UniProtKB/TrEMBL annotation:
The keyword Transcription regulation is annotated on this UniProt entry: no
Designated gene of the protein: truB
Biological role stated in the UniProt entry: Responsible for synthesis of pseudouridine from uracil-55 in the psi GC loop of transfer RNAs.
Keywords on record: Isomerase, tRNA processing
Family, per entry: Belongs to the pseudouridine synthase TruB family. Type 1 subfamily.
Domain tRNA pseudouridine synthase II TruB subfamily 2 C-terminal: residue ranges: 247-301
Name of the protein in question: tRNA pseudouridine synthase B
Reactions the enzyme catalyzes: uridine(55) in tRNA = pseudouridine(55) in tRNA
Residue ranges constituting the Pseudouridine synthase II N-terminal domain according to the UniProt record: 35-190
Active-site residue numbers: D50 (nucleophile)
Native species: Amycolatopsis carbonis
EC number: 5.4.99.25
């Protein structure tokens, strides 16, 4: 006799989950678990984190997945521990050791030399991404090419390191460890900063630990662990609050709201970039952008 089917859970409301990712999980692993917790397949993530890294990972739920490609997540902050004295295949602690620096040379590195090396990696710089990264070469991820045995050399690209402040320095016989806060543009690899700092000092370097504390407007203060989410499967921000937090806001009248819901243009707002359109009742209607004197919807979030 067949068992009766369990009633399907209703789909969760659309919005964002701000997850405090644990170490050892890929961003895809986090999405898979969140799908089970929230009871929906419609979950995506913005701004991946390496498995060894922890901290802020932004997930979109249901209709909020449409926001992910438009979120201004171009400024990120990390707490990092850098190890100087050896380089690795992955530029972090999970790779195999490639080179080991001379302990005598390591012992001669002064705090002033460290400060100079850090300063050279601050501001607008050209950075070569780690070979084991998600950067695509001819449509294939760099890390996949490395795993296939290919020699991968990526071209440098411009990134911005807004802040690279050393918080603490620990000296051991075979290494110097630095705790630092790094605020940088999207596309910056903190492990490449560790690699390049060590290379510049002639002793090699790699990333020991990484915790992301902010992504755009989203911080650890709002983030929850997966275990906390398991206990209370609720959104961090509903769709209205998510758009209000992440985009400039424009409130429209009832007639304009009706036009937006039917996909029609309305008068331009004079706002740079993408912004949120909100109905008189406070609900978000769409993401829009000004073009040729009118505001056109980029993504309609509350259609007619």
């Amino acid at each position: 006799m067949s068992r009766p089917k369990e009633p399907r859970r209703p789909a969760p409301p659309p919005g964002l989950l701000i997850v405090d990712k644990p170490a050892g999980m890929t961003s895809h692993d986090v999405v898979a678990r969140a799908r089970r917790i929230m009871g929906t397949r419609k979950i995506g993530h913005a701004g991946t984190l390496d498995p060894m890294a922890t901290g802020v990972l932004v997930l979109g739920i249901e209709r909020a997945t449409k926001l992910l490609g438009h979120l201004a997540l171009d400024r990120k902050t990390y707490l990092a521990t850098l190890s100087l004295g050896s380089s690795t295949t992955t530029d972090d602690a999970e790779g195999e050791v490639l080179t080991e620096g001379d302990p005598a040379l390591l012992a001669k590195i002064t705090d002033e030399q460290l400060a100079t090396g850090v300063a050279e990696l601050t501001g607008d710089i050209q950075q070569v991404p780690s070979a084991v990264s998600a950067v695509k070469i001819d449509g294939k991820r760099a890390y996949a090419r490395v795993r296939a045995g290919e020699d991968v050399v990526l071209p440098p690209r411009p990134v911005t390191v807004y802040r690279f402040d050393v918080l603490a320095t620990r000296r051991e016989d075979d290494r110097i460890e630095l705790d630092a806060v790094v605020e940088c543009s999207s596309g910056t690899y903190v492990r490449a900063l560790a690699r390049d700092l060590g290379a510049g000092l002639g002793v090699g370097g790699h990333l020991l630990a990484l915790r992301r504390t902010t992504v755009g407007p989203f911080t650890l203060a709002r983030a929850r662990t997966l275990d906390q989410l398991e206990e209370t499967p609720e959104l961090s921000l509903d769709l209205d609050a998510a758009v209000a937090a992440a985009f400039p806001r424009r409130d429209v009248d009832a007639a304009e709201a009706q036009a937006v819901r039917h996909g029609r243009a309305i008068p331009a707002a004079g706002i740079d970039g993408t912004y949120g359109l909100f109905a008189p009742d406070g609900r978000v209607l769409a993401l829009a952008a000004d073009t040729e004197g009118v505001a056109r919807s980029v993504v309609v979030l509350l259609p007619a």
